[in-house]
Amino acid sequence: MQKDQLLTRRGMLLAGAAALGAAGTAGVVLAGGAGDSAGTTAPAPGPQARQAPRDSAFRLQPLTGYGPPRAAPRRLKVRKEPILQISGRGRRMMLTFDDGPNPEYTPHILDTLAKYDVRAMFFVCGECVVDNRELVARMADEGHVVGNHTWTHPLLTTLNRKQIRSEMKRTSDVIEDTYGERPQWFRAPYGAWNRAAFQLGAEMGMEPMAWTVDTTDWMEPGTDTIVDRVESGAAPGVVVLSHDAGGDRTQTVEAIREWLPHLLDSGYHMTVPSRRV
């Protein structure tokens, strides 16, 4: 990404953070079991950025179609800040990947996860799901959790409530059609949350999920830098943010092949949230 593009996007993120008031703390979510509750505080995540797509094909037309009526999701308590840690015993961590699926990079990440029998979370964009349904179906088959990352990856703080609802609902619909279940987790693009996003997510049965360790792989800092950020940030309860789309993710693909076996050998267990009944 060119320097002026980065500066422009950074300005958007700062404006978005100012608009939403930048939440200072967030809770934890139980992963891999039942019985614990959210509520422990942790540092708020910094903003993420997403490289602009290189061609217009990335902006797909909205999915249209007709099917049986969907059951209304269970309404959740409206949070004031996103969850960014997981609870549970032992050295548990959670891996998350945003902006996909992408036919060039997502399969390699899935292959690495399968090699080590690891489950992860994928926060997908609805427009990317349409042309890559087989990858979302593979995520379901291999036990990964798929979350909602909006349809077109907009800065939510610049949209009105109706537009935010459309971005979220259409994405949940296409995930259900492809993955087999409606998503129970939502992540705001750029980490830019606002009241409407929290309220609408709760209405649609989705908890807000952020992160604790940002690889900043979207900046393409180099494979070694990405590896170092994950390994130095590893700790019980950490949620790692990476990307499997939105730009050249070659470094991300190479990095996970290095840091994942290292963390597993160090005694870490990669997990995903338990599904709410």
UniProtKB/TrEMBL annotation:
Keyword field contains Nuclease: no
Gene3D superfamilies noted in UniProt: Glycoside hydrolase/deacetylase
CDD domains xref list: CE4_NodB_like_6s_7s
Keyword vocabulary terms for this entry: Hydrolase, Metal-binding, Signal
Pfam families, A to Z: Polysacc_deac_1
NodB homology domain segment(s): 91-271
Keyword Lipid biosynthesis: no
Entries under PROSITE patterns matching the protein: NODB, TAT
Signal sequence residues: 1-31
InterPro entries: Glyco_hydro/deAcase_b/a-brl, NODB_dom, Polysacc_deacetylase_ArnD, TAT_signal
PANTHER family, A to Z: CHITIN DEACETYLASE 1-RELATED (PTHR10587:SF133), GLYCOSYL TRANSFERASE-RELATED (PTHR10587)
Protein name, as recorded: Oligosaccharide deacetylase
Native source species: Streptomyces incarnatus
